[in-house]
Specification:
Layout (H helix, E strand, L loop, with lengths): L4 E5 L5 H11 L6 H7 L5 E8 L9 E10 L2 E9 L8 H17 L3 E7 L3 H9 L3 E10 L4 E9 L14
Parallel strand pairs: 4-5
Antiparallel strand pairs: 1-2, 2-3, 3-4, 5-7, 6-7
The chain binds coenzyme A.
Length: 168
């Protein structure tokens, strides 16, 4: 049976699950208060992938990502999919929707992100979405130490899909 989920903006009731997802996925995770701040920050959007059928542990938030509008440039961060749900194009759907919202609702045309140089899965994801390498920040990351690859995408509004995507 195929996984059913939808993508929507962060709500207060998601904060505990989003914080747990972050802790599962990153060695230096954002904390509860960092996500809570997004609820009132006009320059940030968090998109959550929410399963339509909770698992045995009651989990509904299975993925998420953040867009920060930095004076017209879109900084993408905290891209995460729960380990049990990877490889089903959930990150792809989240990022496509984040880019669509950023571009159509905030007139952002350039999106940037940083990724660990050894994170081949994430680099493959970003390349598939059209991001290109735009520089390296040596020793940017700790735990473990790693370089950051900066990746950039410039979007053409005329080529964006007009409808939101829900599930695969
Ligand atoms: C990176 C991550 C978000 C990918 O999520 P996902 O939902 O599994 O990704 P998708 O299914 O949308 O993958 C899209 C493409 O990315 C690439 N990719 C994803 N996982 C991969 C892997 N393990 N190995 C190689 N390529 C991979 C593939 O090109 C894939 O396309 P394909 O399935 O058609 O081959 C997920 O592995 C994750 O949460 N990792 C931990 C947190 C993290 O590293 N975040 C990125 C921080 S910059």
């Amino acid at each position: 049976m195929s996984l059913r989920y939808h993508i929507r903006e962060l709500r207060a009731e998601d904060l505990t699950e989003v914080t747990a997802l972050e802790a599962d996925c990153f060695s230096m995770p954002w904390k509860y208060k960092d996500f809570e701040e997004i609820l009132t920050n006009k320059n940030r959007i968090y998109l959550a992938a929410v399963s339509d059928s909770p698992n045995d542990a009651g989990r509904t938030v299975i993925g998420g990502c953040v867009l920060t509008d930095i004076t017209g440039e879109g900084d993408i961060s905290n891209v995460a999919v729960h380990v049990d749900y990877r490889g089903q194009h959930i990150a792809t759907a989240l990022l496509q929707e984040l880019i669509r919202i950023g571009s159509t609702k905030r007139s952002i045309h350039t999106f940037i992100l940083e990724v660990r140089s050894r994170n081949t899965a994430a680099i493959g994801l970003y390349e598939k979405l059209g991001f290109c390498p735009a520089g390296v920040r040596p020793n940017f990351y700790e735990k473990p130490k790693d370089d950051a690859v900066i990746m950039r995408l410039t979007v053409d509004n005329t080529k964006l899909p007009h409808q939101e995507r829900y599930g695969d």
